[in-house]
Amino acid sequence: MSFFIQISQQLTRFTAGVIILAAVIAMIEPATFSWVKGDVQVLVLGLIMLGMGMTLGKDDYRILAQRPLDIFIGAVAQYTIMPLLAIAIGKGLNLSDGLILGLVLVGSCPGGVSSNIMSFLAKGDVAFSVGMTTVSTILAPVMTPLWMTVLVGQTVEMDGWGMFKFMLLVTLLPVVLGSGANMLLDKKAWFKDVRSVMPAVAVLAFACIVGGVAAVHGHRFMESAVVMVAAIAAHNIGGYFLGYYAGALCGMNTAKKRTMAIEVGVQNAGLATGLSAKFFPTNAESAVATAVACIWHSVSGTVLGNLFAWWDKRKGQN
C-alpha cells in the first residue's frame, strides 16, 4: 500500500500537469475520454467530493465552532467577490454569453479541493483554509444556483431548482458520507490507507472530467482561446488580490490573509465543469471555459503558494 501512497503524493504534487496531459490526449484522441459524460460524470464528481469528505474529521468541525468570525468573513468574501467579479469581467470585456456563463459558473462554485495544499505551501493558516473550504462546500447547493439565477438567469435558460437538488446529491451528500466514515473509522489502519490515496483519486477524477470536455469540445478551444484565457486569468488573479485585501481590511494576520487570497481565488472549477456539462450541455463555450479554468486554477494556485514561500525565504536570507 505504501507504493500507492507514494504515487498519490506525486500525482497530487503534479496535479496541473496531469490535468493538462489529459486535455491534450483527449484533443488528439477523443475516444480516450469520450466515455466521461452523463451518469459517469456525475459519479466522478461524487467521487471527488467523497474524497474531500474523507479528509474532514472532528477537529475540522471544531475549527468552525472555535473561529466563527473568521469563517463567516471568509464565506462572505468567497460568495461575493468571485461571482460579482466574474460578471464584471464578462461585461467589461464584452464576452459572449457562453463565456460569461462559464466564468460566472466558476465564480459561483465553492473553494477548490486542492486549496488546502496550496495554503500549506504558502505558509498560510491551514486550519482556516480547511474551515473555509468546508463551509463554502456546505453552502454551495444554495449559493451556486442562487448566483447563477441572479447573474445569468435572464440571458441563459437554466433550472435553478434542478441545480440545487443535483448539488445536494453530488456535493453535500458525498461530503457528509465521507466525513462520517472518517469520524467512525479514523482508527482503522485500512481506512487510513484508503484516505491516503484519495487525493490521487481526486486528481485522476478531475483529469477525467477535463478530458471528457476536451474530447467533445476541444476543437472549439482556439476559436476564442486568447480572450478566454485572459478572462479566466483576470478573474483568478483578481480573486487573489481582493481576497488578500479583504483579509487585511478585517485585521487578519499574514497567514490568514494568504489563506483568504487562495481560498477566494481558487475555485472548484472541476465542479463547474461538471455542472456546465449537466445543465448547459449545448453550450460549448461554457464547457471549454470551465475546463480551462480547472487547469489555470491548479497551476496558478500552486505558483502563488510557492511565491509566498519564496518571499518568506528571501526575507529570511536578507
TrEMBL record:
Source domain of life: Bacteria
Keyword Protein transport assigned: no
Membrane topology: Multi-pass membrane protein
Membrane-spanning segments: 12-28, 40-57, 69-89, 95-114, 126-146, 166-185, 197-219, 225-250
Signal peptide location: none
Record's keyword terms, sorted: Membrane, Transmembrane, Transmembrane helix
Cell compartments where the protein resides: Membrane
Stored InterPro entries: BilAc:Na_symport/Acr3 (IPR002657), Bilac:Na_transpt (IPR004710), Na+/solute_symporter_sf (IPR038770)
Gene Ontology cellular component annotations, sorted alphabetically: membrane
Pfam families xref list: SBF (PF01758)
Record protein name field: Bile acid transporter
Species, as recorded: Alysiella crassa
